[in-house]
Amino acid sequence: MAYDEGLAERIRTVLLDTPGTEEKKMFGGIAFMLRDYMFCGVVDDTLMARVGSDNQPQALTQPHVRPMDFTGRPMKGYVYVAPEGIESDDELTYWVNLCADFVRTLPPKKSK
User: Model pTM?
Assistant: First the structure.
């Protein structure tokens, strides 16, 4: 399954000033990691956004947003944002920053 490389590049641009991010191929797409947590990614042409359980109800009120149901069941704390919801750089930046801010609230992952 291919993913929208243009969208991935736009996310990279948003993350230029965010130290500690990395990329991993996942779900047939690409995931962006911060502090070893997945916080956003691209599946097909859609933004996968980890907004957290507390932010999810409000996120779902936004246009072009739906529950992330990659496995057939909605995943807690994750949403999909359709291409129409991230057409502008400001819209994409909002979602990427919301996800990064949420992940920063999580406890550090334990060393393996």
Answer: 0.93
Element (H, E) at 67: strand 65-67
Q: How many domains does the chain have?
A: 1
Per residue in 69-105, is it b (16+ CB within 10 Å) or e — as a string? Answer: eeeeeeeebbbbbeeebbeeeebbbbbbebbbebbee
Domain with 89 in it: what CATH number?
3.90.1150.30
Q: Is residue 109 part of a domain?
A: no
**Residue-range definition of the domain harbouring residue 64:** 5-104
Quote the pLDDT of residue 1: 55
Residue 40 has pLDDT above 90, yes or no: yes
